[in-house]
Amino acid sequence: VTPTQQPHSNPWRDDLALVRSVLAGDRLALERFIDRMDCVPAILSHCNARRRGSLSDEDLADLAQEVLTSVWERLPGYLGQGALESWVYPFCTQMFQNSVRSKRRRPLHSDIDAAAHLSDPHPALGDLLATSDLIHRHLERLEAIQASVIRARHFEALSFEEIARRLDVPLTTAKTHYRRGLDLLRSYLGPHLKHDPV
Amino acid sequence: MNLHDAHDERHDELLHAHLAGDVPGDDPSLRARLTHCTACSERLEELRSLTELLEQVGGAQRGSLAPPAGAAPTPGRERVAATLRDLAAGRAPAAPPAPVRRATLWRVGLAAASVLAAGWIVKTLLPPPTDAREDVLLGDNVDRSATPNGTVGTFDAFDWNACPSDAAYVRVKVWRSEQSVTEEPIAQARVDRLPWRPSTADLESMGSAIRWQAIAYDFQGNPIDSVEGQAILSSSSSD
Questions:
Q1: Closest chain B residue to A111, measured at CA
Q2: If we measure between CA atoms, which residue out of B196, B199, B193 comes closest to residue B212?
Q3: What H or E segment, with its residue span, contains residue B54?
Q4: B217: helix, coil or strand?
Q5: Cα–Cα–Cα angle for B121, B104, B123, nearest 5°?
Q6: How far is CA A172 from CA A37, A179, B86, B126, in A?
């Protein structure tokens, strides 16, 4: 028995509609977008907590403004293949890392382990941030739909059924994209997934 | 299915089906495959490691998006609306209040001057082999203890206690002091964890005076920073 087909709520599509409205100059949409972008300072503060307060409140506020500017410039590139916050997240982590790097130098011991922690099931907090940055950069190398399925599965904790509905593709197609993306990601990160002898 | 077939795409499908939860861990064909195919068991281990990492990264991401429990003010939150309204209106985002901005610019100017000064120090005051100073200044206004440097008792530990936050590894090269850095190093190593401890054979080849260089690389293998030192054994200098 097939259940009655109901139009499924699709938050990604709603996010895409919001962004398009913002870019079209819709003032009400802009106010809703502003509410959503409260995630930027929140993510940066979280990154900073993981780095044990590398940046001052003033630096974080400056950085939030820089991230928002960068997000705005790239906004036309948002295609609704993931939640808006997921799309914004790597902007925050990458620019936070850059900011910490330019502001001060960190002890080698805590950072050089980022690659080693790819094979460590329990990375330290600071290392996880570097690892997160690395994984986001490699996700950018995948086909958009492959990256989208992997992000949805692991970053938004969605089931394959939910992902298939949001992407409007059959369940098997969603799984195939996931598998191909994961295989590529494994090949990109392969040198780090195994311990690299000197 | 012949369990001794070479690893192929069908095997990958089985592994992925297992990871997706479609094939249980006690499935006979999966167990047989993992028992008889080394490539399968290695690949499954790598995929598990990767999915665990993705889960951890995803968990951190979800955690950062969750509302903070303590409701402490989030730095920068007050600028979100003004910044985005400015950008939407085609204006550059307004600068923060003047006193803060002046202070920031003052610090930037001071930092830039320090970088220039520190760069000059590196070029002109790099300690000679007999200099006992331990800190080496590079162009970032940060003291970094580079070991061994100056007059030392041993060359048995090469350490560099500050490095870019996104360094993936460091490559260390050592020359005898009379050698040029364009010559083949007498010892070199890729270092994933400091300090680097040269082997006994390396130590013997170093003699009593060395110069060394360490270069930090990012995950793409691009050099992003470097430090160098010169050192002489104290037993040799007192001769």
A1: B165
A2: B196
A3: helix B38-65
A4: strand
A5: 10
A6: 34, 10, 45, 63
Measured between alpha carbons, how far is residue B221 from residues A126, A170, B128, B169, B181 in Å? 21, 40, 31, 9, 21
Among chain B residues, CA nearest to A147: B54
Record: contact A89-B84, CB cut-off 8 A: no
Percentage of chain B with pLDDT > 70?
A: 64
- What pTM, to 2 d.p., does this model score? 0.57
Question: How many other CB atoms are found less than 10 A from the CB of residue B239?
Answer: 6
pLDDT, tens only, B218-239: 666 666 777 777 888 887 544 4
Answer whether B163's CB lies under 8 Å from B225's CB: yes
Query: What ipTM was predicted for this assembly?
Result: 0.78
Dihedral (CA of B16, B22, B26, B29) sign? negative
Alpha carbon distance B74, A30 (integer Å): 21
- Listed by number, the residues of chain A in 15-34 with a beta carbon closer than 8 Å to a beta carbon of chain B are 22, 25, 30, 33-34
Per-residue pLDDT of chain A (198 residues; tens, 9 = 90+): 334 444 456 888 899 999 999 999 999 999 999 999 999 999 998 888 877 677 888 889 999 999 999 999 999 999 888 899 999 998 998 888 888 877 655 444 334 444 444 444 444 444 667 778 788 888 888 998 999 999 999 998 999 999 999 988 999 999 999 999 999 998 888 766 653 332
Contact B166 A60 (CB under 8 A): no
Q: How far apart are the first and last CA of chain A?
A: 60
Q: Where are the alpha helices (DSSP H) in A37-170?
A: 39-50, 57-74, 84-103, 108-111, 113-116, 125-139, 144-154, 160-167
CA distances from A140 to A146, A150, A153, A165, B57 (A): 10, 11, 16, 23, 15
